[in-house]
Please model this.
Amino acid sequence: MEKELLEIRQELLDTNPVELAQDLEELEIQDIVDILYLIEVEHSAEVFPYLSIDKKEELILKLNQNFVYDLIENLYTDDIKEILDNENEEVVNRILDLASPSRKLQLNLQLKFDEYSAGALMSVDFVKISDEDNVLIAMKKIKSQEKIAETISYCYVVNEYSTLIGCISMKDILLAPDDMLIKDLMESDIITVNVDDDQEEVTQVFSKYDLLAVPVVDDMHHILGIITIDDVLDIIEEEVTEDIQRMNAINPTEGNYLDLSTFEMSKSRIVWLLILMISATVSGSIITANKDITILSSVLIFMPMIMDTAGNAGCQSSAMVIRGIVVDNMTISNIWDILKKELLSSAILGAILFVINTLRIIILMPSVGFVTAFVVSLTILIIVTTANIIGGLLPIMGHYFKIDPASMSGPVLTTACDAISLITYFGLIRLFHMGGLI
Model:
């Protein structure tokens, strides 16, 4: 029996931590506890971060006190804080009660920062060395801190006041002579983020400078922690998910789709569905106000196409501007550039659509007169231009007024484009009808 357990343990230790975590998700909580005891705390700490938040919380409550204490000591602070952020009072109390004084101090430091700030995101597990160290002493310090450091790819050089004065890669240390001083090797022009910076600003810094890690400093330039690329990738995934949901009229939700309850799913959708349903009365009112025109069958045929074209054009320009805001740091100061670009592109797009749509109607719908084909195509030209401008300006205006640009590009844009396309269409139809051309 003992031999079998040893074989099972070795097999578990040989399994990639991510894959092992995925396998554990399918088991009952007591079985997971037994496996973690079997592979011991050091390897458990490698697997634990990849478990779902629900499983983590259950395990914190189920594992014995000594194991939880050792687990907290072996986990990186940002992984522990992720559990604390879920605000399960029983779990939070157990972690803080069992954590060592130094670990508790680190966690309490991070908990005081705003949820989506660099301070909340950072890990305090990093390697510090002095500029007066030579390479040999620096290597000893790195080895002594290796187990607690989230990464040793970069080491951060501080003075006696913990002020960040430089950064040096592990590669440079390994290749340098043992007696060379760190201050002669380090890079003093360092990219940093402030502890109060928003997490979106942090992702932009990583993207702009192609970083693997960035130090987090306070206003006095004291280093408080580091943020690594794996944390940034998680943020990007969250932000992209949130933007996709907002652009499709869904209030952002957290967690896996399959784990969401039907109540949570319905709650995330109902608000905007109600708003869109009510706002649709605007389009209904426009149609009702032009009921004398809608008796013309040729008018009704093209309404869906015109509304869809307006919405699609607006969404395209909106998507490009949102990307510009997120990736290229566009601000309200770029509004005239956006307006000029959208006007020029609309002229090209509108002209192409005008010609092709006119030919399509004449060739495929011979019962529809040329004047009607001309009016429909002219409407498309006008609404594509209008929708592109609205789609380009709404996100940048939302960004200026601290509103998520993605929210401005979904339901608001659709409603506006629908109303404008109908007003334009009916206005042109009425004008030509009064002139006896239709």
Observations:
- The radius of gyration is 30 Å.
